[in-house]
């Protein structure tokens, strides 16, 4: 959970099945203040309902996430898994193409 992440780190998180949660500064501050006053705080993060909360419900935050990234995380899909979802369409495309393409003379 942060106010921002570097682009490469942010994208790599999704590729590795990690949710990089970006929240507004005031909400991150709210979490930090609660953690300072209660070092044993536990946060719950529910990706499906797009919500972060603590057990006392003093912290209750909703968040936005790109629908495609959410779907990939919820379903445990990496780039290969996402591609394999299109396996039938890929096979149909390949069936229409010649098995051997002629080489281009230089």
What's the total count of β strands? 3
Terminal CA distance reads 54 Å
**Helical coverage, percent range:** 40-55%
Order of helices and strands: HHEEEHHH
Report the sheet with the most strands, covering strand number, pairing sense and barrel closure: 3 strands, antiparallel
Amount of beta strand: 5-15%
User: How would you describe the shape?
Assistant: elongated
Number of helices: 5
Radius of gyration: 21 Å
**Structural class of the secondary structure composition?**
mainly alpha
Give start-end ranges of low-pLDDT stretches: none
Mean pLDDT metric: 91
Question: Numbering strands along the chain, what is their spatial order in the largest sheet?
Answer: 1-2-3
What does this structure look like?
By secondary structure, the chain is mainly α. The chain is 43% helix and 10% strand. It is built from five helices and three strands. The protein has a three-stranded antiparallel beta sheet, with no helix packed on it. It is elongated. The model has no long low-confidence stretch (mean pLDDT 91).
């Amino acid at each position: 959970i942060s106010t921002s992440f570097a682009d490469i780190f942010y994208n790599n998180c999704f590729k590795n099945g990690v949710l990089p949660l970006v929240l507004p500064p005031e909400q991150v501050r709210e979490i930090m203040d609660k953690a300072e006053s209660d070092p044993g705080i536990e946060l719950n993060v529910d990706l499906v309902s797009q919500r972060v909360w603590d057990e006392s419900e003093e912290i209750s935050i909703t968040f936005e996430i790109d629908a495609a990234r959410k779907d990939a995380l919820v379903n445990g899909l990496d780039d290969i898994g996402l591609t394999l979802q299109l396996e039938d369409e890929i096979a149909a495309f390949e069936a229409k193409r010649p098995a051997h393409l002629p080489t281009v003379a230089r």
